[in-house]
Design a protein that fits this description.
By secondary structure, the chain is of the alpha+beta class. The protein has a single domain (8-90), classed as Coenzyme PQQ synthesis protein D (PqqD) (Arc Repressor Mutant, subunit A, Orthogonal Bundle), CATH 1.10.10. The chain has three helices and five strands. It has helices at 37-44, 52-62, 69-85, and strands spanning 8-9, 13-18, 21-26, 31-35, 89-90. A three-stranded antiparallel β-sheet has the order 2-3-4. Helix 2 crosses helix 3 (69-85).
């Protein structure tokens, strides 16, 4: 997946708080996908307006003790690919 892609949340997903985590319920498949605090931040930024690179840069600069930008970018791409494969975002 290119880091210039602009992921966007789909309308048929209902997010629910679960402590520090966020459960994403896909009403079309009746399946949950749970993300941690960083995943929640990535999810919140999947508006279709920002590139994956921009999202990763925001995570890298705001999360205390974040690994290198390259690691954050790779992890962001991996999560967005998972979200896409589970029909939670479009890219």
């Amino acid at each position: 997946m290119e880091d210039t892609a602009k992921p966007k949340r789909v309308a048929h997903v209902r997010p629910r708080e679960q402590g520090d985590d966020l459960a994403l319920f896909n009403v079309m498949t009746a399946q949950y996908f749970v993300v941690n605090e960083v995943g929640r931040e990535i999810w919140n930024q999947c508006t279709g307006d920002r590139t994956i690179r921009e999202i990763a840069q925001e995570i890298h600069t705001t999360i205390e003790g974040a690994p290198s930008f390259d690691e954050v970018l790779a992890d962001t791409i991996e999560l967005i690919e998972d979200l896409k494969n589970k029909s939670l975002v479009t890219v």
